[in-house]
Amino acid sequence: MRYGCIALLCFYGWVGVVGATPTEDPYAEVNASWERFGAVYSRIIDNYYADLNQEEIMGAAIEGMLSQLDSYSQYYNEEGLRQLRQDTTGKFAGLGITVALKDQYPVVISPIEGTPADRIGLKPGDLIVAVEGQSTFGMQLEEVVNVLRGEPGTPVEISIAHRLGAAPRPIVIQREIIKIKSVVLAEKLQGGIGYISMRQTRFSERTTAEVEEAINSLSGVRGLVLDLRGNPGGLLRQATQVADLFLPKGAVIVSIKEREGRREEVRRSQRRPIAGEVPLVVLIDEGSASASEIVAGAIQDNDRGVIIGTTSFGKGSVQTIFDLHEVASSALKLTTALYYSPSGRSIHRDQSGGAGAVQYIPLGNRELPPLLVMGLILRSGDVNGALSALQAHFDLNPESAQQILATRLGDLAGKTKMSREAGQLDTLTDRTYHTQKGREVFGGGGIKPDISIEPAFIPDYIRSLERRRLFFDFAIDYVSTDSTWVEEHLELLMVDDEMVNAFIEFAQSTDEDEVRIKTGLSQIEEIEGFAEDMGWGEKVQESIRQLRASVEQEWNQPLSSKLKPYISNAIHRELVLRFKGRKVQLLEELQDDQQLVKAIEVLENQDQYLEALVDKKSSN
Length: 620
Description:
This protein is α+β, with helices and mostly antiparallel strands. Helices cover 41% and strands 18% of the residues. The strands form seven sheets. Strands 10-11-12-15-16-23 form a six-stranded mixed β-sheet, with helices on both faces.
């Protein structure tokens, strides 16, 4: 048993010595380190006062090694591998619903279009009160998901209640292979502009085929908008193939470089583009990462289209999956290279705070560093940005990211101390590079848009309510699917002052976390002091101060006219989702989307479009 573990750790060890000079023994340092580890390990096993679980000890040793690397490198056990395969293939066997927890029961957030759950009529807000006759009250979210999933073709009986306390009705649903779409919307908008949304999805095995189908369905449009906001990335191969749809044959898409010049690969466009002449705008934000940034960077550096939005996430590293044949059903995901855009720039951002945290946030079979989690949340512009950043950085599914957002910030602060992430991947920050037409672009810290447009302002108080899903919960409690209100208001789903006031009372009566002023401000003050003591950067400290000021201001006048429109809009979105579905909700959200409005304006005005693709210095 002991020697099997030794062999596993030696497999990891030699990866770190490639690049030693020929005159040195490449294994000398590894052997010395292994002897040191073996000496400690053998004495623990032989002499510790209590019985030990050797599997747990070796797991901790592996996690300890990985904590000294970048936070994208991870070890996967059997369950982790299952989730990884689901994310990369975009398929799983189940019912086709996104679930969360409400009143200690699993609640349907949204059924996926065309799945068994959608066909049988499940609605957002439906409570799953039992599975196979067993009550789901108090079950953990991960446990619920595992029970609902299973072999395709097998039935599962669930009991649904439209609201808490309502009589449940049993439903038998047949499990199927669920395909998670990368393209969630393809529509012709005003002025003959085509819109393809990959917002908050992933690059999986069928992404290129879906984008190609979307482009073909929008034939004859004057311009195209490719929405990559909140898209945390996915498969590198799919990113290059999506870029291939827009770039001329032979154009450089991305370069991949391993350390110390061991290997460099340049990937170019391989085909004649199907949308090579159509004016193009790509929308990005702080949640656009990895594969999304490869596409946006290739479009920008080849001067193929205009990038609009806010600076992207900055994940410019490549992870390789190593199957660990020495151990059944396990794998290592290791950062092995950086990718570079066609101009030669690296956009990798230092995501500090990965190594050295004294405690971690447990999430299924994994543990996440809380300082890094807090930083990602605080830097995000809204709840969707936070969800995307968490998914991108930790390869999480949407349910897991939602679970983290539901954690109180004060609890996260109590789990960590200030630390520095070891082994920085790249030092090429803020250097200037040039596109094919000579426009200046910059390396390090994500992709900066050609036209920067901030999203519509939403008060921090409203963001905190969204993060905690209070608008969704209120809409479920206030309006049941079988109420007379639905019959009277279904066409417009209008939100009146009475409903807004009822929501404010609902939010203030919640005891869960920082919405109540005494609990909330004390937690923010605690984090404020903590950030000061630990020497956090001024940008993070300023974000915390702004949050405190906003909460104080908004809470002191919760019925002010300034807050009411935000509350009304948020409730309306949840009502639309529940009674008209996700697609209608997405289309309604586009109406007030300032970044999309700017994209349409640029595409409708050829002079403005071409001006954005001209080097401003050379044109003066």
